[in-house]
Amino acid sequence: MKLFALWLVVILQVRAVWSQNQSSYLEHFWSYGRSEPVYPSPDIEGWGNWIVAYTKAKALVHQMTNEEKNNLTYGYNSMTIGCSGISGGVPRLGFPGICLQDAENGVRGTDMVNAYASGLHIGASWNKELAYTRASYLGAEFKRKGINVALGPVAGPIGRVVRGGRNWEGFSNDPYLSGALTGVSVRGLQTSVIACIKHLIANEQETYRMPPMFLPGSFNQSVSSNVDDKTMHELYLWPFQDAVKAGVGSAMCSYQRINNSYACQNSKVMNGLLKGELGFQGFVVSDWGAQHTGIASAAAGLDLAMPSSSYWSNGTLSLSVKNGSLAQTRLDDMATRIIAAWYRYAPLEDPGHGLPTSLLLPHRLVDARDPRSKQTLLQSAVEGHVLVKNINNALPLRNPKFLSLFGYDGVAIRQFTGTWMGLDNSLSYPDGTPVDYIKIAHIITSSADPNSHLPGVALNGTLISGGGSGSNTPAYIDAPFDAFQRQAYEDGTFLSWDFSRVNPQVNPASEACIVFINEQSSEGSDRPDLADPYSDELVVSVANQCNNTMVVIHNAGIRLVDNWIDNDNITAVVFAHVPGQDSGRALVDVMYGKQSPSGRLPYTVARKASDYGSLLNPEVSSGNQNIYYPQSNFTEGAYIDYKAFELQGITPRYEFGYGLTYTSFAYSQLAIQRDPEVNIEYLPPGSTIEEGGLPSLWDVIARISCNVTNTGAVAAAEMAQLYVGVPGGPKKVLRGFVKQSLEPGQWKEFKFELTRRDLSTWDVTKQNWILQRGGYPIYIGKSVLSIQLVDTLRL
Ligand SMILES: *[C@@H]1O[C@H](CO)[C@@H](O)[C@H](O)[C@H]1NC(C)=O
Ligand SMILES: *[C@@H]1O[C@H](CO)[C@@H](O)[C@H](O)[C@H]1NC(C)=O
Ligand SMILES: *[C@@H]1O[C@H](CO)[C@@H](O)[C@H](O)[C@H]1NC(C)=O
Ligand SMILES: *[C@@H]1O[C@H](CO)[C@@H](O)[C@H](O)[C@H]1NC(C)=O
Ligand SMILES: *[C@@H]1O[C@H](CO)[C@@H](O)[C@H](O)[C@H]1NC(C)=O
Ligand SMILES: *[C@@H]1O[C@H](CO)[C@@H](O)[C@H](O)[C@H]1NC(C)=O
Ligand SMILES: *[C@@H]1O[C@H](CO)[C@@H](O)[C@H](O)[C@H]1NC(C)=O
Ligand SMILES: *[C@@H]1O[C@H](CO)[C@@H](O)[C@H](O)[C@H]1NC(C)=O
Ligand SMILES: *[C@@H]1O[C@H](CO)[C@@H](O)[C@H](O)[C@H]1NC(C)=O
Ligand SMILES: *[C@@H]1O[C@H](CO)[C@@H](O)[C@H](O)[C@H]1NC(C)=O
Ligand SMILES: *[C@@H]1O[C@H](CO)[C@@H](O)[C@H](O)[C@H]1NC(C)=O
Fold first, then answer.
1. What CATH topology corresponds to 50-211+220-345?
2. Which of 49, 105, 323, 523 has the fewest CB atoms within 10 Å around its CB?
3. Which residue minimizes the CA distance to atom 7 of ligand 8?
4. Catalytic-residue membership of 287
5. Topology of 663-794 in CATH?
6. pLDDT tens digits for 692-722?
7. How far does the signal peptide extend, from start to end residue (predicted)?
8. Using CA positions, which residue lies closest to atom 1 of ligand 11?
9. Looking at domain 373-615, does it have CATH number 3.30.1360.70?
10. What are the structural domain ranges in the chain?
11. 256-303 pLDDT per residue, tens
12. Which residues pair with 778 in a beta bridge?
């Protein structure tokens, strides 16, 4: 609650601070002319399924005065409605405004809602059907609360910086996996509300994410992500394209700068890439407080400023149209885009009706939960668990007589009465220093020493999500201990536990010792480390006393394990990620073999942090001018995560796509079939953009299949992965994945489709995706390094 209040204060400060003197000659030197100007802003076209909503929106906007159009382009501070943001309305014409609410993994900060598994957890499930169903239930909860826009899914940060604080909010640092899950999530959410694909774009570190809000008078600006055009297309923009293809109704521009131009006034990004090349038909909303100019941001393609705007309020835009500084068509387009998305996906009459401003004041209960979502909540939690070590079939557990449980992460947070921010369990640093909320407010607004952090570990309760606006509010927390106790009741197991000490004593009669640790991560702060020493000490302390030690890590991001992984007493390790409220139940299902684990790592776990090279850490400025204008040069191109490991010949501890199960699978009969009818010219046919870009990018060029047999003794789902060696690119890039359940002895055909985009590279001269002639190695495997079948596709 306290923290939430602070967050609000922080947001409200934005306006005050931005009126301070921020100009200097350096600003002009750094900020101008480094990002290509693209004007004018493309108007909404009403393509495809937008036509009905577009026509209605045009008609409504036609009846509005310029003051009324202006009124709906920015947020109001409401005294009665608790939305993260609410836009102005046009009461005269019956448009009530739109309510926008956090976030991508569940409705946050209110009551009577569910906490779903977070993005990274869904990434680890590699399950498109499940991701779709989850998003559908999620969207319906937003709608029942009267929310028009659910602020998610997250496709950026993609996870370039390994210590990046928000990497857990999105699905994976692979653009194909992220894009596939992003596309289905947008479709699922938009069965009820408007989805908001965020954060556009290259928002890859929290350090220096915004100008230091609490240091008025400072010249410091946000970090600039300097990204070349090829990398932009092949990595960062890729999943955004899937979102637009899926019909996404809104997009959020990010805090930081791209090529030194702030994301919310970057015309190349909004007018050029999003609305031009990708044919986006929705509206662009600023991240909270990310608007830094008036007419410039409107002309560059920003449509809605949140949570308020000192630049656009009081009729500024309509006056700007009057005196000729802003085109009438731009103001019309801003209003039309907002109203069209509203008509198409969420024309709610009473926005925000289920969101009181304070939960501690009397209010009507609006139950957003649907009992039918239970199965999906649990199954999403189950499938994001990744088993990475399992010696001598230590798992699954089979009616153990005596289990010992350890670790601060085994039990739920002790108090939860207010508004959830996901940091309620992170109240002190491992050295005992309590968290100081003033300091946190400085950290999350880039006003503290860039090397200061939020706690990297949540010591005060099991981790079910990371922290910040991407967290979600649980209806309850089923902690590991709760679920193990229920199972102990069924099996007659004797339990012994110590969730307090870092050096607990172990009863030598324990059949197994399970240690629960976590790795916390939050918006506003990059992580202090990839393996916190406190948790490592705890694991080693138990392992020294127990020869059947199992480690469960609730990790909101990559977690290294090399400080103890080779200890023979450690027989099983589970990356349990961020499972939401059904955490314990899901864990017990996996550890007791009620379901075989089917999760796979959506990232690479290195042996040591330095193996990530320059991508380990956020950019911290050094040098003279860079002190004010931090520069992050994305010189590695598309070579992040497994592509970088393969390029440099580094063997990871656990590679991308890795994960064990309780059975074994055999692969055979790779078949490649190129469609002889389909166009394989160098340039994609056609030149007419539609929503999602050139339609021919989705032409299916080849169909691949193989046969997978369950050769073990238990039922399990296999997740077959297809990698392609696109000529001139990384050795392998993920271009397909299929998950299917198989009974023991059963075989199934696994089928993949490769589209033109999947096989193309971005040509900066042609400004297009090009398809090269030659041999494309096709790899099918259990992970990027465990390749089972290889052949070549010839074009
Ligand atoms: C604003 O910044 C300029 C450039 O550094 C400086 O000359 C001027 O004095 C500042 N004005 C105020 C009011 O601080
Ligand atoms: C950023 O600059 C690079 C190099 O000049 C250029 O390739 C790229 O298109 C620019 N991107 C944006 C968004 O300005
Ligand atoms: C602008 O929006 C606010 C908030 O919805 C509303 O109270 C006000 O009447 C609107 N102004 C106009 C001119 O419609
Ligand atoms: C809008 O105008 C009102 C009344 O003139 C003024 O009090 C307020 O400060 C203005 N708001 C902004 C954001 O400029
Ligand atoms: C036009 O009006 C806007 C809003 O009042 C103002 O910021 C801008 O300076 C004006 N431009 C000209 C050329 O008068
Ligand atoms: C802002 O810039 C100053 C140099 O003027 C630098 O010393 C300081 O570390 C920067 N502040 C932050 C929060 O990065
Ligand atoms: C949080 O956990 C730490 C470590 O166990 C403990 O020192 C601290 O007192 C706890 N804080 C609260 C408020 O319970
Ligand atoms: C493994 O556990 C046994 C107790 O079962 C202990 O004696 C031994 O030292 C432990 N080994 C390691 C490497 O911790
Ligand atoms: C592990 O420890 C248990 C109990 O101390 C003992 O019975 C068992 O033989 C040990 N197993 C191994 C492989 O050392
Ligand atoms: C980033 O690239 C620019 C232009 O090439 C260069 O001047 C600057 O030193 C680089 N910054 C860092 C931190 O590498
Ligand atoms: C798939 O593989 C299994 C096991 O080798 C085999 O029995 C089955 O006939 C194969 N299916 C096809 C369609 O060839």
1. TIM Barrel (3.20.20)
2. 323
3. 545
4. yes
5. Immunoglobulin-like (2.60.40)
6. 999 999 999 999 999 999 999 999 999 999 9
7. 1-19
8. 707
9. no
10. 50-211+220-345, 373-615, 663-794
11. 999 999 999 999 999 999 999 999 999 999 999 999 999 999 999 999
12. 724, 791
